[in-house]
Amino acid sequence: MPRFGNAAIAAVTVASLCSGAWLLRSGAETHAPPQPSAAEARVDPRAQRSAAPALPPSPPDRIRIPSIRVDAPLTGLGLTATGSLDVPPAARKNLAGWYEAGTTPGEIGTAIVAGHVDNADGPAVFYGLGALKKGAAVEIDRRDGGVAVFTVDAVEVYDARAFPDAKVYGASARPELRVITCGGGYSRSTGYQGNVVVFAHLTGSR
After folding, report:
1. Pick from 173, 152, 63: which is nearest to 115 by CA?
2. Nearby residues of 56 by Cβ (< 8 Å), 6 or more positions away
3. Which residues 6+ apart lie within 8 Å of 200 measured at CB?
4. I want to staple 116 with a disulfide (CB 3.0 to 4.6 A). Which of 19, 28, 80, 124 is the partner?
5. Structure pTM?
6. If residue 31 lies in a helix (H) or strand (E), which one and from where to where?
7. β-pairing verdict for 118-119 and 175-187
């Protein structure tokens, strides 16, 4: 499949990840997923200078985030008719997806991974994403047999009405990764009100 970057993705990218059906059944007060603190949103300037050499393009097969116990297969995602990123099937709660028309994780540019925070039965693959800390490792198994290792620069939460498209999806001169799920406030009538976004850059490979 030819790759076109991320310019086509609309701000409603992960709206269909965000119904919060489980919280409707079990109560939001007890079971709401963790949200990032303000401290995790500040990027350390030193992180801008410590990037590993880019890797050749290769589709990803798996994502691991050891500090929050994520170990999940990846499926390719396209765009819906409205221009939003499609999402993995909600029933497969340990499945994440990557935007396969864009950058592959490890090559120069901004690669996009998205997954559900929960489904009707409970927590899903990225339920703990808001608890991730700066400096944590994100590992991507690639189809060429290699592993791209990213380091988290920041973890932020945005209201869906003020989602910063250019900051999240914009081009980069080095290999970067965004991992996205639902977050922010929660309404029983409309679900989650925003998105948690992890910003990371390539720091190694093996």
Report:
1. 63
2. 107, 144
3. 138, 150, 151, 152, 153, 176, 177, 178, 179
4. 124
5. 0.90
6. helix 28-31
7. unpaired
Residue-wise pLDDT tens digits, 152-197: 999 999 988 888 888 998 999 999 999 999 888 787 777 788 899 9
pLDDT digits (tens, 9 = 90+) for 99-153: 999 999 999 999 999 999 988 888 999 999 999 999 999 999 999 999 999 999 9
At position 163, the amino acid (one-letter code) is F
Domain 15-205 superfamily per CATH: Sortase (2.40.260.10)
CB 186 within 8 A of CB 24: no
Asked if 159 and 3 count as a contact pair (C-beta separation under 8 A), the reply is no
* Cα–Cα distance measured from residue 18 to residue 185, given in angstroms and rounded to the nearest whole number: 11
Q: Which residues pair with 65 in a beta bridge?
A: 70
Contact partners, residue 176, CB within 8 Å, separation at least 6: 109, 110, 111, 150, 199, 200, 201, 202
Alpha-carbon distances of 156 from 145, 159, 171, rounded to whole Å: 31, 10, 18
